[in-house]
Amino acid sequence: MTPTISADPRQQIQFLEDILQPTIEEAQALYVRSIFAREVGATLPRGDWTEAEVEERVDAVETVAFDLDSRARSSFNNGPSLEPWKSLIWPAFRIRRALSLPNRIEVSGADPLEGEFLAALDGVVANRQPEIRHRLDEVDLAEAVAGLRWDKGVSREVRRAFLLCVRKRKTPDADDLAEVRTLVAALRSAQPQREVELAQLADANERGAAAARCLAAYNALRAIELLADYLLTGVVVKDGRRLTDRGLKGEIEKHAFNARELLGTIDASERMIYGRLERACLALVDASVYSLPLPRAVRDLVNRMALRDERPIREFWFAQRAAINSRLLDPTRNAIVLSLPTSAGKTLLAEMAIVHASADSPGRRIVYLAPTRALVTQASLTLKRDLGPSGFRVVVATPVFELDPLEEELLREPFDILVTTPEKLDLLVRTGHESLAELAMVVVDEAHLLGEGERGARLELLLSTLRRERVGCKFLLMTPFAQNAADLAYWLGGEQGAPIYIDWKPNDRVVGAVTKGRRHRGVTPLHLRTLSSPHSDCRAGVELGIGRAPVGFSNTKERLAIETALRWSSSKLGGVLVLAESRRVASARAKQIGDERAALPPNAVLDLVSRYLDTESGVSHPMSSLLPKGVAFHHAGLSGEAKFLVERLVENGDVQIICATTTLAHGVHFPLSAAIIESFHRRELHHGRWSREKITPAEFWNIAGRVGRTMEDSMGTIGFVARNQADIDSTQRFLDDEAREVRSALMEMFPILEGIEVEFSIAMVEEHRAMSAFLQYVLHAIAVSGQAALREDAIEELIRGSFAFSEANRAGQQTADEMVRLARSYSRQLVRAKGGGLAGFAKLSDGTGFSSPSVDLMLAEWRGTTREIDWGPQALFREEGQVSDTLVRVMDTLGKIPEIRLGYYDEGQFSPERVARIATQWVNGETIATIAAAEYRDDLLQCTKDLHSTVATLVPWGMRGIQRIAFAGQEVNWASLELLPAMVVHGVRSREAIALRMLGVPRFAAEGLSAEVRAGNVSFAALHEWLVNLPPARWQRALPGNSGISGSETKRIWQALDGQLGWAGLRQSAGSDPA
Amino acid sequence: MAPIDHRPWPATTPSPLPQDVNPRTPLQASGHGLVTPAPTPGSGGGFGPIVEHPARAPHRFRTTAFRAEHRQSWDAIVGQCVQAWRLTSQTFMRQLERGAETGFSIDGLRALLTPLGAAELPETPPDTPEAMRAPAITDVSEVIAVAGYLHAHPGHTVPWARVLHKPVVDEQHRGIDALAYQLQDGEALLALVEVMASDDASRPPSTAYDHANQLVGGTITEDRRSRLLRDLKVVHGEAEAMHKMPLNMFIAAVLAPEWPSNLQVVGAPCLVRGRVRLEPADWRPFEGAISRVEAAPIKATIDFLGIQLPFGFIELLDRIKSSASSQGSPSGAPGGPAA
C-alpha cells in the first residue's frame, strides 16, 4: 500500500521509524562488525551505504525527532506513548556512532571530535549515557586543538566542553567537570589576543560572520559552564542568588536562543546543532543527581555519593530516573515491584528506598533478602559501603536455616539493616524473633525466585505472612523481568501497591551462534552468526569473524567453546564466561582452556588467591594451577569465600575466562564481556541418576543479562556454540521461548490436585515440593491464632492472602476454590489427627521449616528416644573412634525428610554413616583434602560441594529440627545444644571459632584464632574490632603449619571478604610478604 | 494556448484588502510565516488579474502584473525588502549587548559586528546586464515573486521567508528560493518556488533554462532529493513552531522510499520581467520539462507564474530605496511608485 503522511506526531514517528529501520539495521550491523574487527585486528568493514547520504538522512531525521521530542516534553496531552527519543533519536544515535567509527573519520578526514559530538547530542537525549561515557573514555578530550582560527577554535571548544560534561570522568588527577571551568576560563583569558585576528579578515561580511560565530559560541560556552557547575556541585549562583534547576534551564535556554539567533543569518547548520545542544544540555540537567526532588534523607545519601572520591555517582541512569518518577519513594506506596533489567541500576534504587523507609519509620528495621550466600555477602558489602557512611548498621544473618546462640546475640545488638536469605528470615519470623518485631521494609532481590519450586513457594508465603503480621511494613520486590509486576504489586499492596516496569538496558548486546565457517583457500574460519532475539541489538544473519580454526579442528561443541574462549579472552576487554551443563564439565573445560593458554605475566593477587585456595583445601587446589593463566571455574564445588574471590578476580580483570554452571543464575552480580553457551541444559544427579533439563529462559537471561559491562564494554556478546544447522535451529527455538512473567510456584501444584482427596503425607510432600511451604503457611497461622485460624472463613482469608490465590482467581474460579478446598481439607485432617494437641503441635512445628508430615516423622523417630548426653559436642562429633550413633540416626532421618532429601543428589546408595563421618570430620577441622581422600576418592570439588551445599546447610537445619522436636518441653541446655548445628555450618567445633567464622574468618584460621580469643576473653560484641586490630604476627600464629599464605595475607583476605579492603588495596598489598 | 495580452499592464485602482489582513504583519517578526489572506484569486492587492494559459493541465502557466501603485502592497514590499537589508542589524545589535552575560568581553566584537548589522540600504548597481546578479536586485525580485506567488495561491503558507536571508554572500544557501505548503482534507501540497528575474531580451531568457534544470533535474527528479531535504531542514530550523509539524511531515515524505500518495509537489517557477515583457516563449523550458516531471518518482506538477513589473529592476530598486528612506518618518510620504 502506498504510504501517506500526516501531521499527527504519532504517525510521523511510526512513518520515520519504518523508513529508518533498514538504515538502523545496517548501522547496527556495521557497528557490531567494526567492534569485532577491531577486537581481532582485522580491517574495519564498510557499510553497504553511501556515508554522505546516510549522514544527510540521519540529520533530517534528527531535525524532525528533536522537534517532536521537545513537543512531547512540553505537552501533557501526548501521553506516555509518544517517546521520540526512544523511537527516533536512539536509532539516530546508533547510526551516528557507526558513522563516527574511527575508520570512517580517517576516510573522510573530518575532525573526530565532531562525530563524537553529534553522536553524543543524540545519545544524551536518547538516554544512552553509559554507552557514550564508555565511548568517550577512548576519546582525547585533554587539549584544545592549536592552529585553528579563533572563531572555529572557539566553536570546537564548545564541543569539547560539552563532551567533558557528558563524560564526567573523575580520577585522582583530573575531573572532567572541573576541566570545563578551566577550559572556559582559558578562552576568556585568550580572547583579547586571539579575537584580534578576526579583524584582519579582508571581507567585511566574513569578519562579521566570524564575530557572530564567536558570540554564538560564547553563549554556548556560558550555558555549558553553568551546566558543569551544576553537575559538579548542584549549585549554580547567578547575581548572588542560587538558581533552581528550572532557573538553570532558563539560563541554558536563554544562551542557546541567543546563539541560534546570531547564527540564523550566518550558518544554518550550526544554528540547528546549537538547537540540539540546548536540548542535550537540558537532558544532562535532568539526568543530574541534583535535579530530582528527593526526600531529605535520600537527598543526603545521594549528595554524599555524588561527592565521594571513588566512583562518584553524578547522574542517574534513565531507568533510575524513571523509577523515581514512577513514585518509587512515595510514602503512600506500601508495595513496589521494580522490574528493571540487569545492570540498570537497581541497587542504588534499593538503597534510596531503604533510606527513605528508614527515615519514614525511625526505629524499625529493614530486611534485605537475597537468594544465595554469595549475593547476601555481596549485598551486605555494598550496603555497608554505600549506607555505612550515613550511619546505617548492616548485619548479616548466616544464610542457613538455623539460629545459634551467637547469632541470637548478634541480632540483639543494635542494627538497621539485616541482610539474609528468605529461608533465614522465614525462620526468624516463625520463631518470633524480637529483633524483627517491627519492620519498616522488606527488600526482595531477585524476586522472580517466587516462581521457582519449593523456595519460591516459601518466599511467597513468607511475604504473605509478613503482609498479615507486620503492620506498616513496606515491600520492595526487584527483578529483571516481571511483565506481571502489576499483579504482584496488587497482591502485596492492594490499591497502594505499584508496579514499576522499565525496559531499559545500559548497553547493547549481540546474540549469535558460534559456528565453523566454510573452508576457503585452506582456511576454516570461526564466526558468530547473529540470531534473532528480542535481547539482541543486531539483526539476525550477520556473520562476525572470530578467527581461524586451528589445523585439525574437530567440530564439536567442546572445541568450539574452547577455541572461542581462547580468542575472546584476548580480544574482549572483560571476563568471558563459558556456561557448561554440569560442574564436572565446567571444571574440565577450565582445565582444557588452561592447558592451551600461556601463563600470564606474574600477578601477585592471582598468586595470593591460588595459595589461599590451596590452604583452604589443604592440598593443591585444581584451580590454583589455572589462575596463573587467567582461567577459573565457578560452581557449587567452591566454598563461599573462594567464589567471592574468583568473582572479584573476574570483575577486576585478573581472570579472563570463567567456566561455570547455571548456579550463576542466582549466584552472582559480577559483570562479564561475553558468554559462550556450550549448553543451555542442566545436568544433575537425582537419586543417583543423571537427568538433563533445559534451563528456563528466565534463568538464562539472568546469567546472560550480565554480559556487557556498564561503561566498560561497547557491547555484550553471547555466543551459543553450534556444530551444525540443527544446533542453530535448536538454539533459535530456545531464544524464541520467552517467559517473562513471575508465576507463583504453588500454581503448578493446584491444578494437578484438583478434585483429588489428598492425603497429606511424606510421599505427597515428596511429590509436590511446593506443598511443604503451603502446609507450613497454614500451620503457622494456627500456631499464631490457635483455634480461630481453623474457622472456614479464616482459612479462606489466609489463602486469599497468597499470590497463588490471586493468580488462581485470574486463571478461573475453580483453581481458586481448589486452593481453599485443600487448605480446609488439610486443617480438618490436622484436627482429626491432633485433636486438642493441635495448637501445641503447630507451635512445635512452626519454625522448624518442616511440614507437618515431616514433623510427624521426626516425632515418631526421636521423641523419647534420645538423651541430652548423646548431643554433647564430644559425643556427637567424636574426634576418635566410631562415629556417633546419634549422628548416624540424624542423617538417616534427614534422608527421609522431603524438605532436605539428604542423599537425593548423590551417586549410589545413600549412606547415613558416611554423611555422619563427613560431618564429624568437617566439624573436627579436617582439611577438605583429607575428607575428600577418605570419602570422595580424592574428588576435592565434589567433596567441597557436598560440604557447602549439603553438610553445612541442610544438616544443621535438620539437626536443629530434630533437637527441637526431641527435647521439646524438656529442661535441657539449649545454648549448648543449639551450638551444634552452628559447628556444622562453619566446620569448627568451638564457640569462639563459630563467632570468628560468622565474621568471615577463613575456616583454616578460625580454630587457631579462637585460642587467642579465649585467652583475651574477647566478647562477641568486641570481636570484630579485636580482629581489625590484631597484628599480622598473631594471625600468623593461628595458621596451620602447612599454610600457603602468611598471617598478614590471611588478614588482608579477611578484610577483603569483610569489605574493609577494596580489591585495589588487596592487589597493592598482595605479594608484599608471601609465605 | 491562449494569447497573451502584450500591452503594458494597465494601472489599476488599488482594490482594498480584507479588513483583517495586514500584509506586512507576517514579516514583522523574524521568521514568521507568510500566510496570505484570501483575496479573490486573479485580482486585487498589489497584483493584477491572473491570466491563465491553459492546455497543459494539470500543469499551469499563468501570468500577472505587479501593481506598484497599490499603496498597502507597495508598503509591504518595501517593508520586506527593508527587513531583508536590516534584519541582521536588529538581531546582531541586540545579541551583541546580551553577549556581556556570557562572561566574555564584547568590546572586540562590537567593531566587527557593527558593519554587518548596519542599517544601510544597498547600493544600486549600474544599469548593465550584470545588474541582475546584484544581491539587492535579487532580493527585491524574490520579495515580489513570493508576494506574487501567494497572491496566485490563496491559502498557501510560506513558513519562512528565506529569501530575506542574504547578508553573508559566502554563507548564502544555494537552494530553492522559497517553500510554500497547503494542507487540506488530508491532502498536502508542497510548492518549490524558484525565482527568476530577467530583463534578458532573448526568449526564453537563459535563466529559465538554468532554473528549469535546477528545479526539475536538481530537485524534483533527483534520486536522493538532497536539495529538497536540505531546504526543508533549513526552513524547519528557522520556522515558527506552528509550521514545524507540516515541515516534519514533508521531511518524512522526502526520506520515504515511496512517495506518499497524499502529497503533491508543485514546482513553482516565478519569472519576474521588468523592461522586457512576458511572452509564452519565456516559459518554454518549463513546458519542455513536463515529461520529465511526469516521469519523476515523486508526484509533481509545474505551476509557472510570470510577473510583469511596470518598470525595470533598477528603477524598482531605486523606488523601493526611496520609499524605505522615508519610511519611519512620521511626516515622510511613502516612497510609492511615483518617480
Textual characterization of the structure:
Chain A is globular and about 110 Å long. Chain A is an alpha/beta fold and 1075 residues long. In chain A, the strands form 4 sheets. In chain A, strands 12-11-10-19-16-13-15-14 form an 8-stranded mixed beta sheet, with helices on both faces. Chain A contains 46 helices and 19 strands. In chain A, a hairpin with a 2-residue loop joins strand 1 (237-238) and strand 2. The model of chain A has no long low-confidence stretch (mean pLDDT 90). Chain A is 56% helix and 9% strand. Residues 1-43, 167-172 and 328-339 of chain B have low confidence and may be disordered. Chain B has 339 residues and is an alpha/beta fold.
Helix content of chain B: 25-40%
Distance between the termini of chain B: 36 Å
- Taking pLDDT < 50 over at least 5 consecutive residues as the criterion, the unreliable ranges of chain A are none
Q: How would you state the average pLDDT of chain B, rounded?
A: 75
Q: Describe the biggest sheet of chain A?
A: 8 strands, mixed
Helicity of chain A, as a percent range: 55-70%
Rg of chain B, Å, rounded: 20 Å
Number of strands of chain B: 8
Beta fraction of the residues of chain A? 5-15%
Query: How many β-strand runs of chain A?
Result: 19
In the sheet with the most strands of chain A, the strands line up as: 12-11-10-19-16-13-15-14
Termini Cα gap of chain A? 78 Å
Give the largest chain-chain interface (CB within 8 Å): A-B, 59 and 64 residues
User: What would you call the quaternary organization?
Assistant: heterodimer
Overall pLDDT metric of chain A: 90
Query: Could you give the order of the helices and strands of chain B?
Result: HEEEHHHEEEHHHEHHEH
Widest sheet: strand ordering of chain B: 2-3-8-7-6-5
Number of helices of chain B: 10
- Cα-based radius of gyration of chain A, to the nearest Å: 31 Å
